[in-house]
Specification:
By secondary structure, this protein is an alpha+beta fold. It has 2 domains: 444 residues, Alkaline Phosphatase, subunit A (3-Layer(aba) Sandwich), CATH 3.40.720.10; 170 residues, Sandwich (Jelly Rolls). Helix content is 22%, strand content 21%. It contains 14 helices and 29 strands. Strands 7-6-5-4-8-1-9-10-2-11 form a 10-stranded mixed sheet, with helices on both faces. A 6-stranded antiparallel sheet has the order 19-29-20-25-26-27, with no helix packed on it. A 5-stranded antiparallel sheet has the order 24-23-22-21-28, with no helix packed on it. β13 and β14 form a beta hairpin. α6 packs parallel to α9 and α8 packs parallel to α11. The protein is globular, with a radius of gyration of 30 Å.
Length: 778
């Protein structure tokens, strides 16, 4: 309120008092006016003072935390692998290499532990978000009792930003309605640019900036690649920070989508590895093992574990299989080398702003072991039936690997080779192939560069406590009024200048998809549940609790080559009991709870949906599920006088979905299953100008098959009849083999991601007006 308004109120109050006194027959009273001396005293006592903003402790370093995806322990040349990573080597040359660093066996659990300093089940991420279940350890609801490292750094004077993959928000909350308190910007990051799901196309990604969808047109610039885009944006953020808040340290979390499937990379990077993998995975693994010993990243007495009997020998393959599968590895190697180059460009950009000795870099090449999820012959082309064509047919399109046409993945055995010298791979928490990855720490001027390999037992939940120690932050017992759970991780800053110091992280449990592991003081017990590739999964067979335990003495047996359970039954029993205690304390039970559980999607129970123009793209989990339901889509349009064109409704993309669109005034409906046209219906009449209503009705051939309710599992497409109408008149009808499961978004007025139909180029926005779209499930 300004001075003039205050004076008006004062005079009104005086007048009212006087009138009241006159009504009582009394003389009006004169208001008491403060003496000049009293006014002066009040002015002297009142001093302007702004609230103090958080300030970082003197000497608190900038923190750059880098996390790659699905990179095995033995993939990079820095750790003896076959993929050249010179930028990572340069970083390692100025820092430390940790060869007993551990992660969880899948994406979301590792990230939750990394960014909180707690255990994954305690963070409600006992699994990936797509397999969330209604149990405390698995519901993917980041607990307020466990503030993120970004939140605490922000509250202690840091600028914070996250780039790339964020896989820690419940699927049903990734939409324009939120809530947003479990998005990156709700968990302490002041800025976010990246994607919210397990994977996205590197060529045509679905991205968000903070909580809003990013412009999809930017991803269609010539030469675009997601990793390059993320690096560019991160460098720009550092420039903005330094221009506006150079007195504050920053925390930059950079988590690429690389090298998760799809293996998308420019062709020139693939060409660098032509012929490099023709000798096959057995020879590559043995050569990596020899280099690992030469580099000193594994002990001299370490043994190379044998190939599992389930994985074929390279020499058993046909010539055509060898040609295809060797090229799959060339694509992956190019992908990882390209990622190394781009991360190096990020670090160079940060250094160019003058950040060197004031910046510590934690670089984790892998959030779990290499992925064996590609199957024995890898994955690229898929038929409408979900099965791969013959190897001969696949070879005809071998040069398309790495491009936008396929969600390609290498063969299972390559993952085994890239996890040298350990057993198994991603998804397996019982063995080191799924849970041990490299860690490089670089802080020029602050760490001793001799004896660069550190062999203390460390875990991904140790990163946050280490950052707190370096930033002189004592984690508070209460954050935003909520009492905090204690940190589970242990700072390993003590290892920086004391290479021989004993490990301080002495106990750690592991669990993923029913496979279990427990570490204590150099011993490891593990219980293997199922094979980590699609044909090997058996979640409905014997319960994981019935699977036997193995025992390894890691102090003497670095690679888990010798199961000594029979020799040390008492030690095994001790560790089994310890796992039981840790599992109950951290909400690990029930194991594999996703089997009979369904997600609380916002579409549950709804049969009618209405959308207006200007609708944000809707992720698959929040969109109507149409592939197995009779339904009708009705759109109210304002058609221009010239022939209209563009998408009315599209769900999915080039790998599956449907699209209702107009081209030169003609109405089209097209279905896509696994990248194949599964049916097309074309209207016999063109759209008239002005107010027009079009409908597309799907009538299935029969009832949907019975399926178990496994959290947002893909559904088998159901064939049926599509009928098109314009203003109530039937203008087309035809049979479609089904509506493919979508991998992109549900869009109104344009096709935001990759195109569902090859007949147009996204976004192919509708040239008229879309006033309303209604979807009714029958």
């Amino acid at each position: 309120m300004n001075a003039r308004s205050m004076m008006a109120l004062f005079l009104a109050a005086v007048s009212s008092s006087a009138l009241a006194a006159a009504d009582d027959g009394q003389k009006p009273k004169t208001a008491a006016i403060p003496k000049k001396e009293e006014n002066n005293a009040v002015q002297v006592a009142s001093k302007p003072e702004w609230p103090q903003l958080p300030r970082a402790h003197a000497g608190a370093p900038n923190v750059v935390l880098i996390l790659l995806d699905d990179v095995g322990f033995g993939a990079t040349s820095v750790f003896g692998g076959p993929v050249n990573t010179p930028e990572l080597q340069q970083l390692a040359n100025s820092g430390l290499r940790y060869n007993r660093f551990h992660v969880n066996a899948m994406c979301s659990p590792t990230r939750a532990a990394l960014l909180s300093g707690r255990n994954s089940h305690e963070m409600s991420f006992g699994n990936i978000t797509e397999l969330a279940a209604g149990y405390q350890g698995y519901n993917s609801l980041w607990p307020r009792e466990s503030a993120s490292v970004a939140e605490l750094l922000k509250e202690n004077g840091y600028s914070t930003a996250a780039f790339g993959k964020w896989h820690n928000t419940p699927m049903w909350e990734v939409n324009a309605a939120g809530p947003f308190d479990r998005w990156p910007t709700g968990l302490g990051f002041e800025y976010f640019y990246g994607f919210m799901s397990a994977q996205t196309s590197q060529w045509e990604p679905t991205l968000y900036r903070n909580t809003l969808p990013a412009d999809p047109l930017a991803a269609r610039r010539p030469g675009y690649h997601l990793t390059t885009d993320l690096v560019d944006d991160a460098i720009r953020w550092v420039h903005r920070h330094d221009a506006l808040a150079s007195d504050k340290p920053f925390f930059l979390y950079f988590a690429t989508g690389a090298t998760h499937v799809p293996h998308h990379v420019p062709a020139e990077w693939i060409a660098k590895y032509k012929g490099k993998f023709d000798e096959g995975w057995d020879a590559i693994r043995e050569r990596s093992f020899a280099r690992q010993k030469e580099l000193g990243v594994i002990p001299a007495n370490a043994e190379l574990t044998p190939r599992p009997k389930e994985i074929p020998a390279w020499d058993s393959l046909t010539a055509d299989q060898k040609k295809l599968l060797a090229h799959q590895m060339e694509v992956y190697a190019g992908f990882l080398s390209h990622t190394d180059y781009e991360v190096g460009r990020l670090l160079a950009g940060i250094r160019a702003d003058g950040h060197n000795e004031d910046t510590i870099v934690f670089y984790i090449p892998g959030d779990n072991g290499a992925s064996a999820e590609g199957g024995f012959e890898g994955r690229d082309a898929v038929g409408m039936d979900g099965k791969a064509p013959s190897v001969t047919d696949r070879l005809e399109r071998i040069d398309d690997l790495g491009g936008e046409m396929f969600l390609n993945h290498y063969a299972t055995a390559w993952a085994w080779a890239l996890n040298s010298p350990f057993q198994w791979a991603k998804e397996v928490a019982s063995h080191l192939g799924g849970t041990r990855d490299p860690l490089i720490v670089s802080w020029p001027g602050h760490v001793i560069q001799t004896e660069i390999v550190r062999s203390q037992f460390t875990h991904v939940n140790d990163i946050a406590p280490t950052i707190y120690e370096l930033a002189s932050i004592t984690p508070p017992t209460e954050v935003n009024g909520v009492k905090q759970t204690p940190l589970e991780g242990v700072s390993f800053a003590y290892t920086f200048n004391h290479p021989d110091a004993p490990s301080r992280h002495t106990v750690q449990y592991f669990e993923m998809l029913g496979s279990r592991g427990i570490y204590k003081d150099g011993w490891w017990a593990g219980s293997f549940n199922h094979l980590p590739w699609p044909s090997g999964r058996s979640p409905f067979n014997s319960p994981p609790e019935t699977k036997p335990w193995e025992l390894y003495h890691l102090d003497d047996d670095y690679s888990q080559a010798h199961d000594v359970a029979a020799q040390y039954p008492d030690k095994l029993k001790e560790l089994e009991d310890l796992f039981e205690a840790e599992a109950r304390r951290n909400h690990v039970y029930p194991l594999e709870p996703f089997r009979l559980d369904a997600l609380p999607l916002i579409t549950n129970g709804k049969t009618s949906f209405e959308y207006r123009s200007g609708q944000h793209p809707i992720p698959a989990a929040s969109a109507p599920r149409l592939s197995q339901r009779a339904h009708i889509i009705a759109a109210e349009l304002d058609v221009p006088t010239q022939a209209a064109s563009g998408v009315i409704v599209a769900e999915g993309g080039r790998y599956g979905g449907f699209t209702l669109y107009v081209k030169n005034g003609t109405l089209f409906y097209e279905s896509n299953i696994n990248g194949h046209r599964a049916g097309e219906v074309v209207s016999s009449e063109t759209l008239p100008p002005g107010k027009t209503i079009v409908t597309a009705e799907f009538t299935p051939d029969g009832p949907p098959p019975q399926q178990q309710a496994i959290s947002f599992a893909p559904q088998t497409p159901l064939a049926g009849i599509i009928t098109l109408t314009i203003n109530g008149k039937t203008v087309g009808s035809g049979h479609v083999a089904g509506i493919g499961n979508n991998t992109d978004t549900f869009d109104i007025g344009y096709d935001r991601g990759s195109p569902v139909s090859p007949s147009y180029t996204s976004p192919f926005a509708f040239t008229g007006e879309i006033e309303r779209v209604r979807v009714d499930l029958k």
